[in-house]
Amino acid sequence: MDYNEAINIFKKSPLLRKTYFSTNFFDFCKFYFMEYYNFETPKCLEKYYNALESWKNVYFKWFRGSAKTTIAQMYVSYCIAYKTRRNIMWYSQTIDNAEENLTYIANSFINDTDAWERFCRDYGNLYYPETVIKQGQKKIKRIDKFVTENNCYVRAMSLWTSPRGKNYTAPDGKFRPDLLVFDDVDTVQSCQSRKKIDKNFEFMLNEVLGGTTGATQIIFLWNTIYEDWIVPRFEEHIKNDPTWEIINLPIYDEHKNIVWNRFVETDAEAEKLNKWIREIAKKYVSLETERRRLGSISFNQNYLLIPYMNWQHIITRGMIQRDHNCKGYKYDSIVIGVDPAVSEKEGTDKFAICVTWKLQDRYYILESVGLEGMEKNIWRASETVKNLYNKRKAKRVIVETVAYQQVLKTVFANMWMAVQEQKTIKDKTTRLMEKQILFEEWRVYFAPWNDELIDELLTFPNAEHDDMVDSMLFTMQETRNKFFIASF
Question: How, if at all, do strands 168-170 and 145-147 pair?
Answer without folding.
Answer: unpaired
